[in-house]
Amino acid sequence: MTATETDFQSWMGGIQARVEEALARLLPAVQVAPAALHEAMRYAVLGGGKRVRPLLAFAAGEITGARLERLEVAACAVELIHAYSLAHDDLPCMDDDVLRRGKPTVHVEFDEATALLAGDALQALAFQLLAEHRLADDPSAQLEMVKALAVAAGSRGMAGGQAVDLQSTGKQLSLPELEFMHIHKTGALIRAAVFVGAACGERLPADSGAKLDRYAKCIGLAFQVVDDVLDAEASTATLGKTSGKDAKQGKPTYVSAMGIVRARGLAEELRGDAHAALARFGERARRLRELADFIVLRKF
Description:
Helix content is about 70%, strand content about 0%. The chain is mainly alpha-helical.
């Protein structure tokens, strides 16, 4: 491993540990009633995951000089939305999965009703965090953060993408249709993570904000393309979730649409576009560039 790679791994590990500690602090304690619900919430969030969205929030904050304590809360809010979506996506009425992050899914460990309520409560807690902490100097910027996360989680974002995904099972989508689905299902929350991280600092000019969003859009799609490839190639033990389930369930993926080789090529193309979008930011965007590489080159 090169010195640059070691430095990135150290930075990433430090942010992951910081976010884990913050999540443990911000989530309701198990001792607080209703204890069973709070236990399920903590189970859904803590002790697993790559924390890609919080990492992106922290990296985007470096561009705007955001304070770490603000980034910590914003990153946790995004991660709570992500954890809620996983708890719900794994339910029998959705993707019906039994393994997530190397352990039983929330509805398997507890029950379906508790998993549903835990997801609902995690989503509410995310917006509570954005409302009760001072995350930007300008109150209007903080309102924009709330709106961005709400849109990313709603019918024009993650929930809408999941609806398209469920309706598309057993069908062959065109590449534009597949891109539309994943811009919403996966990409929207990744774009929101970059936006809220940057919004914790100095306001960017409109053209710079557009470039940063272009980066986030490219890397959000790349994340899904690589996920589709790994689902087809990697083992369940490596992924920490059930491998090969997309093919078994007849879900349209980039692998089913264009094959593994072309899918990997698309991910590389998106990585190049993401790097190009960051050109104006210079050294301030180093962590975002490294995260683009990590997302595309990862093996899990």
